[in-house]
Amino acid sequence: MTQPRPPIRVRGRSFMATVLAPTPPLEDWLADLDGLSRRAPAFFAGRPVLLDLSALRPDRAGAEALVAELHGRGITVVALEGEGAEGFGAGLPPALSGGRPGAEIETAETTPEPPRAAAPARSLVLDQPVRSGQAVVHLDGDVTVLGSVASGAEVVAGGSVHVYGALRGRAVAGAAGDPLARIFCRRFEPELVAIDGLYRTADDLDGTRRGQAVQVRLVDDALRIAPLDG
């Protein structure tokens, strides 16, 4: 007797997406984007990107070329928005509208500056937890979170990342090119950890350290996770 087929199950799931809104001249915008990627190599790792074409208003060929440029930089464009995006048709990411905007992610300036004496690193201390959908980017020193970093949140530091609570989101240390930076947390449950461009996602992490107080550091170009008291 043939068994009845189970019904199709449709579920909703929320993800934090980054909106990139290129502005003319496009060559300058791409140069700034490359500067950000050099300073924070893991910034776009595993992150879905919504491409806002409002300022450019490209034709289909221009949109295809821009998506290809971003793809070549390891940036995954999952959707487009902006006037005219819905008319591009198949072969490009779908057009979306009506999303709820999030807070703007602050990044350091990427315009080259004249040589100057090195300034002392400045640490950023956050008295509040970092909530889902928030991103904290501080490339001038350490970031210390006195609470937790929620799933869907991200902390990017030029130096080390210290989380006094649970790390459930993404922690990126050494984003300004510091291989000696570390990640410390009281409860290790991250979506991603990265130091100086080397990263591991939750699927790649050793589950034996989950929920423990740990430190993450680079040893021989590999991420090592050890107990804080070890």
UniProtKB/TrEMBL annotation:
| Cell division is among the record's keywords | yes
Q: Which residues form the Septum formation inhibitor MinC C-terminal domain?
A: 126-225
Q: Which Pfam families match?
A: MinC_C (PF03775)
SUPFAM superfamilies cross-referenced by the UniProt entry:
Cell-division inhibitor MinC, C-terminal domain
Q: Where is this region: Disordered?
A: 98-120
User: Known InterPro entries for this protein?
Assistant: CAP/MinC_C (IPR016098), MinC (IPR013033), MinC_C_sf (IPR036145), Septum_form_inhib_MinC_C (IPR005526)
Keyword Cell cycle found: yes
Keywords, ordered alphabetically: Cell cycle, Cell division, Septation
Taxonomic superkingdom? Bacteria
What does this chain do? Cell division inhibitor that blocks the formation of polar Z ring septums. Rapidly oscillates between the poles of the cell to destabilize FtsZ filaments that have formed before they mature into polar Z rings. Prevents FtsZ polymerization.
The record's similarity note reads: Belongs to the MinC family.
Identification of the protein by name: Probable septum site-determining protein MinC
